[in-house]
Here is the input.
Amino acid sequence: MELLCEWCGQAAEKGENTVYWELPDGTRAIQITETPAVACEDCKMVYQTDEIIKKIEDQLFLIDTKKIGKCISYEELMALPRLLKRNYFDFS
Here is the structure.
């Protein structure tokens, strides 16, 4: 199945990039490296899908963020132990 860019509708590819995310408590931002991304050669956009954004937001809400330094890889972030099994405040 061909991946299409959400911005311009042209063919896109899976890739990775570095993102910066504010922690849920608003105390600081962290750098998340090797984050799954969509890269469009046509319009040059590189972005995260809604699915990846939700995974990051949920994980940051469910872990002890004090244990994260200034920089962490996506895989390391997703592997951190959760304090809760799921985000009970997400009603979507």
User: Anything to note?
Assistant: The two ends are 27 Å apart (CA to CA).
